Design the sequence.
């Protein structure tokens, strides 16, 4: 790309001035970054506290056990996600006593080295693994009464059937109310890891925009984006959409090639120690953006600002944020083209509670991390989405990413 063309790539993730981070132009960055080193894992005591909080939550909800297959919840409590396969791995955390982790015998050493769970019980390949689960369940069951076990919500139906068959004397309920309550408010350590993922993603998007060239395909750019993220030690990827393709909120790679004077949208995320980012930037590739692009881009930016400025801890409901942003776009004449919720929570999952959507009366608490991503999508023309990652602070919304400027 010629230099003059690069300088007119407008609305990108590149930081070209000091007005970044907050709606009022002040930087969202503290004077010192969170104390999490580039290669540090969360210390074991973090997971000890999480287990203690989990056990207290189980007692509060009058539950006796949480069972978890490999997942982000498994990693959240156990410090490691070994991944799922046809071989059973299951974490069992009782309301009282020490957690038990069941896995194939040949995996015991690997899991002990990476997880914080001390009681790891192996099963041999020729054995029924549910026999080991049954033995653990009998030990963890409350005496003289039926136990109630919360099942982690992403557990497979196959595993649930086997679990119900193996654990006689237990009642099973959906464990979402337990895991979501514990994970929805992020600790400073978690926010620090999310910040690092955001930094890597923003740098990767900026580097990718700088290498755009006529004739590239959406797939070419997506592969370039992934390489940029990997080079920064934060693996990930994202959607890349040119021109009319950008009017599909979750459009996949199209056959078209990049031309001058068109819209390019990148929606990307990467991970650091299991924690993710989610950033969308929409730019104009060429000499000068069209008047309509500038109008739509600035309207989306105003909608995002309205939501960001209104958020107050323990007062603002999720649906209020959505309503405020939607009103700006509707008043601007584009309401029918804002076709999705305003945002979603994020942490170890790219999409998780809280969801900023009509009908969600959850009040935003300090430590909740979420996206604010209004968009306008005109089919057969173009789409614009601006997505930034935020955390609710003690006084209002703090923007963790660097917002692009208005055009």
Sequence:
């Amino acid at each position: 790309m010629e230099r003059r063309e690069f300088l007119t790539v407008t609305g990108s993730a590149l930081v070209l001035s000091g007005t970044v981070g907050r709606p009022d132009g002040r930087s969202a960055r503290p004077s010192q970054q969170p104390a999490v080193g580039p290669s540090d894992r969360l210390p074991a005591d973090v997971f000890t506290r999480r287990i203690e909080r989990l056990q207290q939550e189980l007692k509060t909800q009058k539950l006796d056990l949480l069972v978890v297959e490999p997942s982000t919840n498994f990693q959240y409590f156990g410090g490691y996600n070994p991944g799922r396969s046809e071989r059973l791995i299951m974490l069992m955390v009782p309301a009282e006593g020490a957690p038990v982790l069941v896995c194939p015998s040949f995996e015991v050493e690997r899991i002990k080295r990476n997880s914080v769970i001390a009681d790891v019980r192996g099963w041999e390949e020729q054995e029924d693994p549910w026999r080991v689960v049954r033995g653990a369940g009998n030990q963890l069951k409350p005496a003289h009464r039926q136990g109630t076990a919360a099942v982690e919500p992403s557990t497979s139906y196959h595993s649930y059937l086997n679990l119900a068959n193996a654990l006689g004397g237990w009642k099973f309920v959906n464990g979402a109310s337990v895991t979501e309550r514990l994970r929805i408010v992020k600790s400073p350590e978690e926010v620090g890891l999310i910040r690092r993922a955001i930094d890597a993603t923003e740098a990767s998007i900026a580097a990718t925009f700088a290498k755009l060239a006529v004739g590239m395909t959406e797939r070419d750019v997506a592969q370039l984006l992934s390489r940029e993220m990997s080079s920064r030690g934060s693996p990930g990827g994202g959607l890349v959409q040119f021109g009319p393709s950008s009017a599909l909120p979750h459009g996949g790679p199209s056959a078209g090639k990049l031309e001058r004077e068109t819209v390019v949208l990148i929606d990307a995320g990467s991970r650091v120690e299991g924690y993710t980012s989610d950033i969308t930037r929409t730019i104009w590739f060429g000499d000068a953006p069209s008047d309509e692009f500038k109008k739509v881009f600035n309207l989306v930016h105003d909608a995002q600002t309205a939501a960001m400025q209104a958020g107050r801890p323990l007062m603002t409901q999720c649906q209020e944020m959505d309503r405020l942003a939607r009103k700006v776009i509707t008043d601007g004449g584009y309401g029918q083209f804002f076709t999705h919720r305003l945002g979603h929570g994020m942490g170890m999952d790219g999409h998780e509670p809280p969801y900023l959507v009509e009908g969600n009366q959850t009040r935003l608490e300090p430590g909740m991390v979420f996206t604010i991503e209004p968009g306008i999508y005109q089919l057969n023309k173009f789409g614009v989405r601006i997505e930034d990652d935020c955390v609710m602070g003690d006084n209002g919304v703090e923007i963790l990413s660097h917002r692009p400027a208005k055009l």
In short: The mean pLDDT is 90. The longest helix spans residues 188-210. The radius of gyration is 23 Å. The first strand starts at residue 65 and ends at 68.
